[in-house]
Protein 1
Amino acid sequence: MTTTALKRKLLFLSLILGFVITAATIKGSDKSSESPDYSAKIQELYRLHGRALDTNALFLPAIRCKGCHGHDPMEIANVTLGGVDINLFDDWETSMMGLAGVDPLWRAKVRHEALVNPGHADELQTLCTSCHSPMGHFNAIYRGASHYTLEDLSSDSLGLSGVGCLGCHSIGTDGLGSRFTGDIPFDTSKVAFGPFINPMTGPMQLYINFTPTYSPHVSEGRFCSPCHTLISGTVDLEGNPTGQTFVEQATYHEWLNSVYPSQEKTCQTCHMPQIEDPIKIAVGYTALPGRTPFNIHSFAGANQFMVDLIKRNKTALGVTASDANFDSTLAAITYVLKHQTIDVELSDPEFFSDSVSFDVLLTNKAGHKFPSGYPARRAIVEFVLVSEQGDTIFKSGVVGNNGEIINYGGQGEPHHDIIRSENQAQVYEMLMNDVNGNLTTVLERAATYRKDNRLPPKGFTTTHASYDTMSIVGDALVDEDFNRAGATQGTGKDIVHYRVSLNGYSGNFSAFARVHYQAVPPAYLDEMRQFDAPEIGLFLNMYDASNKRPMLIAGDSLVQLISPLGISSVSNNFKVFPNPVRVGQAFYLNMNSDPDQVRMFSLDGKIVPVEVHKTSSGSVRITHSASAGVYLIEVRKNGKRTINRILISSN
């Protein structure tokens, strides 16, 4: 049979099957008719396939959803109008949601915490698995287990599904938005909530004994709250509870304290972007209407490092997803990091007697703090001045091949408003202290914050009702540029001022400002390295063989700036007036004596033609054809040069 004939036959069969299922659905929705009994059909289906159906299970492994919500070889379902495959299973499988149960850093960290506090290791693991392996965890607890540990997870297909399909679509509404730390309000009546009105119920009832049910809560921000605000109990260095709690993560509350809820922009808006194409969401059921808008299930966040690490070690981790699916996920994460997280703007230079000053303006574009989530994550601002010969004049925040900041003494860097030394770097992060006030990465020992200068989202204020779950801590709180414009909070911005001594250098130079994102800094693993366990050894071997350099996500530069150094004075030798001037308007130089040469430069070092006219009053008249912008005026006299600045305005 030819390929074309085969496709036609399959299409014909799918049309027939779609008609039958549609008829069954119509009959099942008629309250006057007896609902069909699918149980015998389900048992027969799994007998034929050699798989027993566990009717007591509250969930099913995600692989069971692949047949309908995976790739359609006929390219009818789960594709855009342009033929792009956007099937739910493949996009989910290589996301951190799909990989949550096999995440080697998470497993190593859970084992690390359990070894630090062995007296309640089982309770600790049970808490941690509630979010990373919710289906395995809650299925076991509901069926009478007292704990669900890493050992239980390792042989459980439900747990290994990570945050599988039903791990989200079975979440109910009971207390949603006020239940956190893995307290997930699952609906145990075997429903699968979705965003589409009047779902076709027959196929899912027939094959997996779950009923698709419309509910708007799956599209709301509170849907993510049970796992994206995490509050842990603090223990002392002997593992004894102190009675205090510590907010380890509060991404949901950070979103609440922003402008985005009022704009109806939810977690799903960014992490599950919508397309308007009508999508048939189940393979083989051509009678299904196209659903729109459709949420892409890539769940792209910021953890590019871990997705790439798992891809490179997928065999050792038992992951069977294709490299192509991993690459698609990595591309989605890269897009989010480079386009939806942060903007960087480098100011014009301000010259002083033997130094230059730059401002770096950073704007948070995310719907929560940046970085957010797991406390290892950090963003590093790199600022570099380079001479016209290519030599580095100044550098701050440069990261070496080992993944650590050069001239950096380890964790504990304070927040900076002004940076004057190469030993200083602006690092946006959250750091934790134990009960003795010492820096720790052991989450259960976290008692107080040493620092939290992560860049807040737009609209974030210290007066919000839940601010105590996401406080600004350290020098950022008194930084007048941090999330503030005067007395007004909520800008979502920060300005870092760089004041650089050039030590007599008088040539041209270039300036670069960049932001790098790092999910797992090397120093964060120092405490973990003191312990020996299979999970820890496996992850550290993978980490040590990985590329630990952070990802460049944003930047701005000014190339071939003209330095006014090595001059007797910057502004006293002559004044520019009027300043500013309008486009086309001449300006004057107030000089003590006639100049030997006058030149005008744009900030990128290009010469702007001017005409110089000496006047009877002793000043020098300059005519030009420059457009609006900031320019440098260079005056040479007796072998010395002096530079001043002029602003040309468009009005």
Protein 2
Amino acid sequence: MAHFSIDPDFVRFGQRAFAIRQINSIDVRRHYPHGRGLFYILTVVVVLCALGGLGSGNRVAIGLAIALGLLAVLGWRRSRTVEYRLFLTTSSSEVQAVCSRDPSQIDEFRRQIEASIRNFHASGISER
């Protein structure tokens, strides 16, 4: 995780700095970095191997179904991984500022940035 700091003028994530006065909006998005396609394909193959093996008594097909079933379970567990991405929208672009698997950390970043923006606007200063 990149170093995070915030002051009245800037929010910093590692080497990247964003001017508080230039931030128009903050967005948190969920992202699933590992798709579920392989899980679905393996599940179909497992079912076919199991049905074929049980119907004919083929031990190789049953063993293959068990092995592929274990891989399908691992793939399913991996596909449940969620990354939370915090985006900052400025007047010129939208930028992914930080990514984490810890939703409470992203929520804390968002809360601090929003508080800093509110303080900036409450100070009545439109340009610094």
Protein 3
Amino acid sequence: MRLKAVLPQLEIDYDETNAEYAKQLQTATARATKKEEGIAVIKVVDSTHYHLWTDALHGRALAQQARNSWDRGTYVRWTILSAWSAFETVCGDALAASGLGNDFRRRFDAALAAKGIPAVDWGNGLWQQALHVYGVRKEFTHVKPTIAHNRLLAPVEEAEEAILVLRAAIKDVCNMTNHLAPVWADDDTDRGWDAGRGSIAYSMSVKDGADPEGADTVRIAYETNGKEHVCDILPPGTDHGPVLDDLIKRLNVPVGLIRAYRGKDLIEERKLQVRGA
């Protein structure tokens, strides 16, 4: 069937049997719902590609918040390099090609040809824009001593353009190679400067039939800032797996570890790659 997932820009052939994509979609949907409700969103970063993309989003947010042109230019340049790296890694995976970064246009064309995929139009539309971003990326990667000072003070708009263009290019590469577009490509938010966690209220839910002191009671907990907090106490025999899955979607603070206990015995621990934890 056809499915528009999370955001209108992401429209792909969705196979209900594809468990990995279904999991990504569920997580992204929960993230989008939290954003609409004004709830802080944690980011479970489950790939190098997404890590680089969150770097780009973070750089853009810092550029937007910067109070002087020097800092702003630094963050803009970082954003462009990170966004391009995320894009390039996706291209490498989708085309089963390595070393695309050196002479990208020629190597990308060769990788397409090797798979029998028609060449892109570098002189028009999306791929002309992507080529422009590549040129800027090269300019800021291999900075010449003669570069104008003002050029290093790049405006926020260049960061915005890089993210917008490369997001579309990531999806286009996935489409032309018959790969699922990564859900993380639609992530477009970052809080920017970390103002600290401040005061956090920790709540605990005790379900009907659960004895907080029971030897077989199932306890769900998470660790933040080096301290563990029990958040759910459940009746004996409760399947803890789905509860941990749901906890990841409910969390609104950066958490590095979540755990399930039976009584005092640890039965599962999950380490989360969460930005800010």
